[in-house]
From TrEMBL:
InterPro entries: Cyclic-di-GMP_PDE-like, EAL_dom, EAL_sf. This is EAL domain-containing protein. Transmembrane segments: none annotated. Residues 36-58 have a biased composition (Low complexity). It comes from the Bacteria. Gene3D superfamilies: EAL domain. Residues 24-284 form the EAL domain. Residues 1-58 are annotated as: Disordered. GO terms for molecular function: cyclic-guanylate-specific phosphodiesterase activity.
Amino acid sequence: MLPGQGKGPQPRAGVPHRRPGAGHPPARDGLGGAPARGAAPGQLHPLRPGHGAAAGAAPPRRRLEVLIRLRDEDGSLVPPMAFIPAAERYGIMPAIDRWVITRALAYLEQQNQARGERIQLSINLSGATLNDEGFAPFVEEILKRTDVDPEQIVFEVTETSALVNLTATARLLARLKAAGVSFALDDFGSGMSSLGYLKHLPVDYLKIDGLFIRNIATDRVDCAMVEAIAKVASVMGIQTVAEFVETQDVMDLLAGIGIDFAQGYGVHVPEPLDTPSIMTYLDAS
């Protein structure tokens, strides 16, 4: 989910929030040293299955989305919109993406050893990475070197990024899907021709734009659009994810529509990787 990577509702009372760019000059040197200074797949945001599995079907993998964070010199977390636009401007997002993937796979290895069940992580990719010819070989090589099942990885690409170079994106998706990883199309529905190009992208998940989810319980048009997306996705064998899920009423409505996964503050707030409550939540859900 880029550039926001972990977008959600407006910060709640008591949650510190910094104005994008405040105190963070867009200097290339500062961003270039981001991994060394504390850029990290710093938080996880769980996804909850939206409705029961079919009789006899295996339960879905427990899924979490990796949210990138940058730690400032004073130790505080910098919101994504304060550094990702500058990183894109200076052409270093592919390097940050690779670093996050390396850290995420190390985390999965650790969890694989600690848990009998193998969880699944969703990792955001920038638009620049979609056009990086060295990215697919990088992923193929790191998968060979780690004890991670490729099915544990879901790469998320935004609809906007995919449309910039549809041919290159489709080629990348096809190659890495052959290696066993999955793909999610994020912010789906934000483009005018979403359904038209969908059949050209071999994605496994559609993350429905949160603009359609926020008011779905009271807006009949939003509800109808989500129902239409869910129906098309079902016909194509694509699973759906609803973002910005804030209330139980919305969760119940989405389950009735047939949405496969729900994500948002009403499901679980993002938390640091080492927070025990993340795994407690997954064990209980």
